[in-house]
Sequence to fold (187 residues):
Amino acid sequence: MRKSPTGNAGFTLLELLLALSIGSIVAAAVYGSFHTAIKAKTRAEAAMKPLRTARYVFSAIKRDLQNIAVNSHVVEVDCNAEHCSFPVSTDGSPMQVSYLLNRNSELIRELRAQAVPDGSRKTGGQQQIRQEIIGRDVRQLQFERQIKEVREAEVATLLIGVRICFADKPDPLQFHYAILVEQALLP
Fold:
């Protein structure tokens, strides 16, 4: 800082340019660090999304299997490679829960209630109550049902294996889960 011939103090043009240059360098470094942190956070959230979805799907299937209707027959638990369907009892009313994969790579949970006679007109079969998407970007869904044991009172214990494969590029993510159903199932 120099004093002018009139006695006023001030910065020279060179000092101002040097201060602006240093300030620009510091601002660029702070911006770069901030931008890198935001990108890392976005990547981490994207990597965790399939795990969160798998955890939610597995907990929903486990919850439904724990509510399987008492005294259901093993054959009513229809699990094959592409879908799983079984009777549940919620609030005392018989329901049918199904898990399946649609064409849009969405995992669907479908809840149906047994149809009841409507006045003089009877409706047969089952009526759809609710259908919800519980997972997206699912490439493959696979179920496997095994009868674990049949006890003396002819009560079966089932083991349901679930495999979910997410459409993640370049390598698909796969999650496996086994659920033991220890309810009173009739063979």
User: Anything to note?
Assistant: The radius of gyration is 31 Å. Strands lie at 2-3, 9-10, 78-79, 83-90, 93-101, 107-114, 126-135, 138-150, 156-166, 173-185.
